[in-house]
Amino acid sequence: MSIAELRADQEPWSSPSSTPAAAVSARVTPLSWPTQPRRLERLLPVLAGACLFLVDVGLVIGAYLAAYWLRFVAADNELAALGLDEYVRVGATVALLTSGLFALRGLYDQPRPTKWATRLHTSVSAVSTALVLSVALSYFLGDAAFSRLWFATGWALAVVGLLVWRTLAIRLYAAVRNAISPATRVLVVGANTLGQQLAAELAEWYDVVGYVDNGSDLLGSDVPLLGAVSELDHVVHDYAVDEVIIALPAKRREQVTRLVDRGFRRPVTFKFVTGIGELLPERLEVQRLGGRSYIGFTPVAQVSWLKRALDVVLVSLGLLAIAPLLALIAVLIKLDSRGPVFYGQVRVGKDGRHFRMLKFRSMVVDADRLKAKLQHQNEASGPMFKMRRDPRVTRVGRFIRRWSLDELPQLFNVLCGDMSLVGPRPPVPSEVAQYEDWQLGRLRAVPGVTGLWQVSGRSEVSFHDMVRLDLHYIRNWSLALDVEILLRTIPAVLTSRGAY
Questions:
Q1: Domains, the chain, ranges and CATH?
Q2: How many Cβ atoms are within 10 Å of 135's Cβ, its own excluded?
Q3: Which ranges of the chain have pLDDT less than 70?
Q4: N or C: which end of the chain has fewer CB atoms below 10 A?
Q5: Do β-strands 269-272 and 243-246 pair in parallel, antiparallel, or remain unpaired?
Q6: The whole model's pTM is what?
Q7: Helix, strand, coil % (nearest 5) of the chain?
């Protein structure tokens, strides 16, 4: 970064831009926002944390009281070695230690959205650790032996209770916060083309209050310019900003970095738009080496052998269950139109390997020859071909397509290993020939019978978005994600959304 650029970035309104400094100053919106954050909004995280703590403690104690009732009262068992007060004391110790472990992990700052698997792991580890410490403490204090069944029952009830309560608490906190502050206020640092794109994208979920920059490349923008970068702290405070999105090029971020180092009067979250965008998966590894931070990730997630095992087991059971349905569809196809029951089409699988994908025939025999004549009526974007009222589709074919029954023979492809239950849809070679380089990334996974595209609207989703969904799946694969997609496939098929 040159001295001139650094000086321009430090002095308000001196950055070379398409808008003169005087004109930019005239466009700055005065600070007329209902600016000061409401007291209740500031207190909400504190109140939420206190509520979480109290409910956690009470819930764990209640779990061990319920375990005592089940073990001794409901079972009419009088073999309790200790009185109720002793069991309450141990239950309270477990509860306080559990909450202490939660506090060490920052779980009382405010409820944060997390995956259910993360919440389950947190609850199990905290209650288990607290229970072990409580048992050890009782042993060293010379207490009599407690019922092992009571310990186990209380542990199970506490884990389930915390998991359910924490899930409800996240939703309850979001509802209360939205009622107090209807939308998260976002400020974009960078009045440029990228900043304008971000403001338009974020407006669907957030309240974008304006831009901050030392000049503006935007003419006639609906989002106001609120001040210079040097005034960022004042703008954040006066406009009660919750999140700041940095949309400046790397060479212009030094002044923002200094302001971030100094801190802000209002609690605010900063997000930097990275140059690698959607390449970043959900699982990241951050390392600090030689004074620099490095973000590490795997472009293609490692797939476990459990995925293949799940495919084989589920498909084998599924084929046995739907054998009568397959036979019925085959008979109907044969009665409806001349030609074979199955249709085999060459598709492109993992790493570009070709295979023949099976489907129930839903079109007339010479459908491929007629496709060229209908190309001008293509309703799909990109290299795909789709028509809502394709004249090549037969009467039975239209029905089985609507309910995705034509895809059932692909279960045999899954057994053979050419496909998986979940994955990107396999394209035809003519489509792959038109792919851009980045779109070839969807060929890095075994193709699937269903996937994110199918459960997100199928033909209603553009080709560009379909590829983005596939790349997201490939970078973030997990067995839990496969199970989620399989479950979402059921309502997607029943509603027939985007099926034609």
A1: 3-37+182-273 (3.40.50.20), 39-180 (no CATH), 305-495 (no CATH)
A2: 18
A3: 1-42, 75-82, 110-113, 142-145, 181-182, 219-220, 274-280, 289-292, 367-388, 458-459, 496-500
A4: N
A5: parallel
A6: 0.57
A7: 55, 10, 35
